[in-house]
Amino acid sequence: RAGGAGGEAPEGAPAAEDDLAKQAAKSEGARARLAAELEAAKGEHAEVLAEVELIAQHFEEGQEQVASLQRQRDQQEELCRQLVADRAKHSHAAGALKEERTAIQDKLAAAEKLAEAARESMGQVEAHNAAMQAELTRRSDELRALSAQLERLRKEHAELEQHAAAKLAKAEEAAAAQARAVEEASQAQATALDWRERAERAADQLTEARRRTQRLQERLETGGGGDSMLHEEIGLLRSKLKCPLCPLKHKDVAITTCGHTFCRECVDKRLNLRDRKCPTCMRTFSRDSVVQIYLTSSGS
User: Which residues pair with 292 in a beta bridge?
Assistant: First the structure.
């Protein structure tokens, strides 16, 4: 049996070797498959890790975006609160501006009434001045007539004196006609006295006319002084409606942050030059805080 067994062993060895070879081949194939699967798993693992890193990166970016959006939301909420506060301030300033505009309109109406009364007074003063000027012209004409009459009386008086002197000379030369010459001289003297009295009356009339002319001139000067005061008052009222920067144009805009008023051209010039401070109180203003106002009519 041992020999038989020993004789059978060589016959079964190749089969065992074939089995081992097959098993080895299977093992090698399984190892190769496992190695390939391992490599594939490693690749999948690397891809998963990359995807996880990408997801983590996107998550961090999403967290940063969420934080940024949160900050933006906080800023927008703060801005909204500021806008609500500014709107309340602007509403209050607009109300104050409306009240001030109403007060200015009332003052303007009062100023218009005062100007109307001033115009009526000026008309009356002008009419009175015209009447006084006519009276002065008439008195001047009378004065010139009295002056001409006085001059004529003076010439006549001189002629009479010359005539009396001639008659006296003739009386001295003609002794025989002395009585008649004396009588003629007396008559001439009486005539001269009469003309002298006329001349004195004319001089008194001239003096009275001069005094009346002086009184008329004083009355005219007094009326002119009142007219000047009236013009000064009207000029003061008009200056209050002028822009304090250029004093050429009327005020037509107001700054709501402080309530001061100017003309549109001066305010636009400051805005274009980035000089956004009120010239009166130096408070900062923007283009949105400049509003249109109406202090005068379009025909003023």
Answer: 253
Q: How many residues does the chain have?
A: 300
Say how far apart CA 45 and CA 31 lie, in whole Å: 20
- Tell me what pLDDT residue 5 has: 43
Q: In the chain, where does DSSP find H-type helix? A: 2-173, 178-240, 264-272
Looking at residue 288, what DSSP letter applies? G
- Report whether 150 contacts 206 (CB < 8 A): yes
Computed over every residue of the chain, the mean pLDDT equals 79
State the pairing for strand pair 253-255/261-262: antiparallel
Q: Are 252 and 263 in contact (CB under 8 A)?
A: yes
Phi, psi torsion values for 292, nearest 5 degrees: -80, 135
**Residue 240, number of CB atoms within 10 A of its CB:** 13
196 CB-side CA count, 13 A: 8
Q: Find, among 82, 88, 84, 94, the residue nearest to 255 by Cα.
A: 94
Rounded Cα distance, 226 and 228, in Å: 5
DSSP tag of 56: H
| Strand pairing class (290-292; 253-255) | antiparallel
Q: Tell me which amino acid residue 284 is.
A: T
| Residue type (1 letter), 209 | A
The confidence score (pLDDT) of residue 265 equals 92
Measured distance CA(1)–CA(5) in Å, rounded: 6
pLDDT at 210 over 50: no
